[in-house]
Specification:
Helix 4 packs parallel to helix 6 and helix 8 packs antiparallel against helix 9. The N and C termini lie far apart (106 Å). The chain is mainly α. It is built from 20 helices and no strands. It has a domain of 146 residues.
């Protein structure tokens, strides 16, 4: 008995809880050998057999990962992430019992900002976590740290691994979107759109530059009206070998998936950051980039929600009327609205909301005439800018009407004719170019 005590109890072997022994046995003496598969299988079986021990098991694994990080023992940190990931997949039904410890470990790893290998393993594990479908949302869970870290990765400017870090940031955002966007009770991701969406648009700029340098590349505007379902986007993402090395292509996929999943109540939260980004970074001119973004949005969004995009753009256009020296920006915004209206006409027709939009456009046209009449300073340049805006409005309404069935086109014409008296109030005071624009408007109506 004394020999048994000396060999077992006195050395403390059996005083260590079983879950700790199982976790310790998973890590090999040499990290190059990888996880001990037999002991990992025992840990999985123990977790399934006694789910009440999962909380302690994951807390202990999280503590070991934190200890290895403090000691700069990267190989064991990677093994710890893999062990937690494999155990999580086996016990996903009890996710809420241990998820806090798991996310704490990922936070610690992601804080190692300059380590590409650790960041890649952490993002891959986070993607596996986001693929788990939960029966009920956890309202106490907070993803704010992950949103901030992934946003930081999307804007990475390191000399060597900039592309890879940006792709990892986009993958993290995409995983979080797919985790929470489909659940109407999960509002956490939508309140962070002011960080997520600008990160996506920032990486899409390179894609737009490539499209401009290679005109033969198929444009999104050529495929306008061809919507993409979330399932198709998932297949595109899995089948593409470019997404891990090309943040521009990956950003386009993430944006399309985001608007595929967006509900009516969430669209404003997604579009407003785009408008602010284009304003703050002066991206409205040239108009190719805004057109590229909104063509992707219109191709991805549910057809019955397309009018809301136009409404938000009209509201943004109205803001620029109260600012000076923005006539060229107004024209660019109007060109984007024109493309969106053509898409809406082909897919949804002219509803009551579209009549409201046309009424607002006619008010903008009248304001433009008034601004032109009261303009001072460099009249030639200013009047030319206003004339281009007026032409864009007229062409937008005309192109929209052309895509409608005949009976709806007649309704649009009747609606416009009733608005013409207010439009003609400043006709006599306008320049010859503006008079030509109004006559062009009448020509559209007659045809």
């Amino acid at each position: 008995m004394s020999e048994y005590c000396n060999n077992c109890f006195c050395c403390g072997c059996y005083l260590v809880p079983r879950y700790k022994r199982l976790v310790n046995n998973v890590f090999p003496a040499n990290p190059q050998h990888g996880l001990d598969k037999n002991n990992l299988e025992r840990l999985r079986f123990y977790a399934v057999l006694k789910p009440e021990k999962l909380d302690k098991s994951f807390r202990y694994m999280s503590e070991k990962v934190a200890r290895y990080l403090r000691h700069r023992n990267k190989p064991y940190v990677i093994l710890g992430i893999k062990a937690m990931n494999d155990t999580m997949k086996s016990c996903y039904q009890q996710l809420n019992t241990f998820v806090d410890h798991y996310l704490d470990a990922l936070r610690l790893v992601l804080e190692e900002k300059n380590d590409l290998e650790l960041t890649e393993h952490a993002v891959s594990s986070f993607e596996s976590f986001c693929e788990i479908r939960e029966e009920a949302p956890n309202y106490q869970r907070n993803y704010e740290f992950f949103v901030d870290r992934f946003t930081e990765l999307c804007h990475n400017n390191s000399d060597n691994n900039k592309t890879k870090f940006r792709c990892l940031g986009l993958r993290g955002h995409h995983a979080l979107i797919r985790k929470t966007a489909n659940d109407e009770l999960q509002n956490d991701v939508w309140k962070h759109m002011d960080k997520i969406v600008p990160s996506i648009v920032f990486n899409m700029e390179v894609r737009d530059q490539d499209r401009q340098s290679n005109p033969k590349t198929s444009s999104s505007q050529d495929n306008i009206g061809v919507t993409t379902a979330p399932e198709q986007i998932e297949l595109i993402e899995r089948g593409s070998t470019l997404t891990n090395d090309n943040p521009a292509i990956l950003a386009e996929i993430v944006l399309r998936d985001l608007f595929c999943r967006a509900h009516l109540n969430n669209i404003t939260a997604c579009v407003q950051p785009i408008l602010i980004h284009l304003d703050n970074h002066a991206k409205w001119i040239p108009v190719d980039f805004p057109k590229y973004i909104f063509s992707e949005i219109m191709n991805s969004i549910k057809h019955h929600n397309s009018y809301l995009i136009i409404e938000l753009l009209l509201g943004h256009l109205e803001k620029h009327f109260h600012q000076e020296d923005t006539a060229n920006i107004k024209t660019s915004i109007m060109n984007v609205i024109q493309d969106c209206m053509v898409f809406a006409a082909a897919n949804t027709g002219a509803g009551s909301t579209m009549f409201t939009g046309i009424s607002r456009l006619l008010k903008f046209l009248r304001k433009s005439f008034q601004i032109e009449c009261s303009s001072t300073g460099n009249l030639l340049t200013h009047n030319q800018d206003e004339h281009e805006f007026q032409t864009a409005v007229i062409n937008g309404i005309g192109d929209f009407a052309e895509k409608l069935p005949d009976f709806q086109m007649m309704e649009i014409m009747q609606f416009i004719i009733t608005s013409l008296p207010t439009l003609n109030q400043g006709y006599e005071e306008t320049t010859n170019d503006s008079k030509f624009a109004i006559l062009n408007f009448f020509y559209y109506l007659k045809n």
